[in-house]
Amino acid sequence: xxxxxxxxxxxxxxxxxxxxxxxxxxxxxxxxxxxxxxxxxxxxxxxxxxxxxxxxxxxxxxxxxxxxxxxxxxxxxxxxxxxxxxx
Length: 87
Prior knowledge:
mainly alpha, Arc Repressor Mutant, subunit A, 6 helices, elongated
């Protein structure tokens, strides 16, 4: 984000406001949503929860699990188990 601000010659906070105006969420929220969507694909493919956590860019298994449960409504392990039982 800092690099983008330097290239565009605008402040970080102005960029965040512009992003939010156009997309309705902050860049951080956008990134989290993308990571959660990618993690769902990894879990469906059989990757372990820990491997998925680090593969999508989270540094903490705990924060990944909490965010996943908040966004999806179930833990990563429960989501994966549900996906395997469907197939």
